[in-house]
Write a structure and sequence with these properties.
It is built from 18 helices and 18 strands. The chain is of the alpha/beta class and about 550 residues long. It has three domains: about 150 residues, OB fold (Dihydrolipoamide Acetyltransferase, E2P) (Beta Barrel); about 150 residues, inorganic pyrophosphatase (n-terminal core); about 110 residues, Diaminopimelate Epimerase, Chain A, domain 1 (Roll). The termini are close together.
Length: about 550
């Protein structure tokens, strides 16, 4: 069973300002300069981009390399996720504005795989006869392809935000791990042009990519998202407007949540299902009719992706050994593009590391997700020595290996997990920002909390705990009957509380005299009337 604690007891605070000050202090924000930069961050165009790997010298090197081949084709090799798509869009349109002949390429996840693929680059060179290659959101580990390009005297420029111990020998490398690929592309664009009419729409794409790539929303990343959201409210990017239309969302209402869970998934669906063309074309076309065509294709792909993912999850659930500290499944029927989603859902549901693998040609490819106490990439490398490829970070990883090696891998990973994963590692431990009395909740408090937006990695939405709650009603809701809605009495009237995907816990509530609840606060507006609403993160019997 998961355990909850909280940072501060807020129940004795009568002032909303006092509550907000405690929330800010828990984020390390106490002095006036920190608070000013947090609430009103300076525009990204005014930041010193040298701190993020884009120095004036590097921009000069970039311009010199490109000017040597001004009339020749330049290949920009991107990636198929939201960050890769947006970064390729920004860099392509920036250099086209500078007069260069740009050939953008978004790889296919199944045919090209992730990153700069040697066979693909050879094929593209034969097709387009380019003289310069720019990688964006990849390339920092692409030794074979970069070596081949160097051998053929082709200029190589790597722009990437991923980690490496030993980068390839490229003509120019712009690399920083604190920001995403789109942010690097926007920073370069900022050095090459000061036209706000060009930069502000691209900043909106950068904001979306920053959230979707789960970058910490602090420092420059916060400024990118904060100002990107403001730019949307002033004049939204045409692609964002079109995505909002199909999602039935007003651009004026967009926040970071909508980037990560409403708009971003529609762009990501293209790459996951291996038809990335409509996503890139949506971002780049200037024809409204084509945007409508592409966005409806993406919406259909996303619906298809949701169905395929749900089917994959249900298939996975049939094969889980609940006695094992690590989930490792080979499901050859799954689409390669959704195995990461399935692994993530399993980790979320069972709070243990999850590996989901599928067949990809002659090899097995796997995607892995983990919990905060276990570094999955280090675990993989320690448990098994013979991957064809392996990489990632502490909470997510991927690998490939020959099909004939899967049984051996399973033995190794199972033995290692049983030896090194302790029972305490598998007990979720969460910390809320503070304890509240439900009578303290008001629209004014929620509006004050919302000034801390954008919320996301590094700046999470505040979570509160309240004790000894007795709902007057609880019912199952949703098209699939998977959610719960609770009615909770307070001195100010009833509060609604929603618990997503918790319908299977209805009996727990009915059997409990009182509940403790962990929740975030939102405003529910219906027919012009607004009232506070709780979104439950968890609940448990008070006597537990």
């Amino acid at each position: 069973m998961q355990t909850w604690s909280y940072h501060t007891d807020l129940t004795g605070l009568d002032s909303i300002d006092d509550i907000i000050q405690v929330l800010l202090a828990s984020r390390g924000l106490t002095d006036s300069s920190q608070l000013t930069s947090y609430f009103t961050p300076k525009h990204p165009k005014d930041w010193d981009w040298s701190d993020y790997g884009i120095s004036p010298d590097q921009i000069n090197q970039l311009q010199n390399l490109l000017s040597q081949h001004r009339t020749d084709p330049i290949l920009i090799y991107g990636d198929y996720d939201v960050d890769g798509l947006c970064a390729t869009t920004i860099l392509t349109q920036t250099l086209q504005q500078q007069g260069y002949h740009i050939i953008p390429y978004i790889p296919s996840s199944s045919q090209d795989g992730y990153g700069l693929n040697l066979k693909t680059i050879q094929r593209l060179h034969q097709q387009f006869n380019f003289t310069t290659v720019i990688t964006i959101d990849n390339g920092i580990t692409a030794h074979p392809a970069i070596d081949w390009l160097n051998q053929h005297h082709l200029a190589t420029i790597i722009i990437d935000h991923h980690q490496t111990d030993q980068p390839p020998s490229a003509d120019l490398i712009i690399n920083n791990t604190d920001i995403c690929g789109s942010a690097l592309a926007w920073g370069i664009a900022r050095q090459l042009t000061d036209q706000a009419a060009f930069l502000e729409p691209q900043l909106q794409l950068t904001a979306m990519a920053t959230v979707c790539d789960v970058m910490p929303l602090t420092q420059l990343n916060r400024a990118l998202v904060w100002h990107g959201l403001r730019a949307i409210k002033h004049q939204p990017h045409p692609a964002i407007t079109t995505l909002c239309q199909v999602a039935d969302l007003d651009p004026l209402d967009i926040d970071a949540y909508h980037f990560g869970f409403v708009l971003g998934p529609r762009l990501n669906a293209a790459g996951r299902l291996d038809d990335v063309t409509p996503a890139f074309e949506l971002l780049t076309t200037d024809q409204p009719s084509l945007r409508q065509q592409y966005v409806h294709t993406l919406d259909q792909l996303n619906q298809q992706r949701q169905l395929i993912t749900e089917a994959g999850i249900q298939s996975a659930l049939q094969h889980i050994d609940h006695q094992q500290p690590l989930i490792s499944l080979y499901l050859p029927e799954l689409e390669e593009g959704i195995i990461g989603l399935v692994a993530g859902k399993l980790t979320q549901k069972y709070y243990r590391p999850s590996i989901v693998a599928t067949q990809s040609g002659e090899v097995i490819k796997a995607s892995c997700r983990s919990i905060k106490t276990i570094d999955i990439t280090q675990l993989l490398k320690a448990a098994y020595p013979d991957f064809t490829s392996v990489g990632g970070h502490s909470q997510a990883a991927g690998f490939s290996l020959p099909s004939t090696n899967w049984d051996t891998f399973q033995t190794h990973i199972s033995d290692y997990a049983n030896q090194h994963i302790q029972p305490d590692d598998l007990i979720p431990q969460y910390q809320a920002d503070g304890q509240l009395q439900l009578d303290q909740i008001s629209l004014s408090l929620i509006n004050a909390i919302n000034l801390l937006q954008p919320f996301g990695m590094g700046n999470p939405k505040p979570i509160f705990i309240s004790h000894s709650i007795k709902p007057t009603t609880v019912k199952i809701i949703g098209k699939q009957a998977t959610h719960l809605k609770l009615t909770i009495p307070t001195a100010q009237g009833n509060l609604d509380a929603l618990a997503w995907n918790a319908a299977d816990r209805l009996s727990e509530i009915k059997q409990s005299a009182q509940l403790n609840i962990a929740y975030t606060l939102d405003i529910n507006t219906w027919n012009g009337n607004s009232k506070p609403q709780l979104h439950l993160k968890d609940f448990w019997a008070t006597n537990q």
